[in-house]
Amino acid sequence: MTEKMPTMVVGGAVVDDLARPTVLLAARRTEPPHLAGGWELPGGKVDPGEEPLQALHRELHEELGVKIEVGEELVAPNGLGWDLPPSHRMRVWLVRVTEGESAPIEAHDELRHLPLGRWGEVNWLPADMPIVAALTALAEERQAP
């Protein structure tokens, strides 16, 4: 029996500054029912034949109505992507909005721009919690003089 490859998902850590982020965007899900009300980084599935960065641009345009500049990838500890049980794996990049105003167009009903030091104040989905912890560590490290 061969093991099924996980579905690849992309996520955008929407920040105010790619080099020294101090604000992070959180999006509250409306669906599916078991995830509704939880907060996440916006993004979605990579379509067949699509490159991950193409999917990231497409998903953030569909979900938030924005165009973005992509910064560095926040590489998961396993080097393969952040696990999203039961069968997905997510790659996450720091991104900055270059055009448009973020709005909860699709799959979300609310957005919050959280200042550094308050990134943990929303009820992040369990799979996003280690990602937000890694983002927080990166941002705090970059704030040091």
Word description of this protein:
By secondary structure, the protein is an alpha+beta fold. The protein is built from 2 helices and 8 strands. Strands 1, 4, 5, 6 and 7 form a 5-stranded mixed β-sheet that branches. A 3-stranded antiparallel β-sheet has the order 3-2-8, with no helix packed on it. Strand 6 and strand 7 form a beta hairpin. The longest helix has 15 residues. The radius of gyration is 15 Å and the shape is globular. The chain starts with 6 loop residues before the first strand and ends with a helix. The relative contact order is 0.27.
User: Helix count, per DSSP?
Assistant: 2
Q: Quick one: biggest sheet?
A: 5 strands, mixed
The chain-level structural class is alpha+beta
Q: Look at the structure and give the mean pLDDT.
A: 94
Report how far apart the termini are. Answer: 53 Å
Q: What's the number of extended β-strand segments?
A: 8
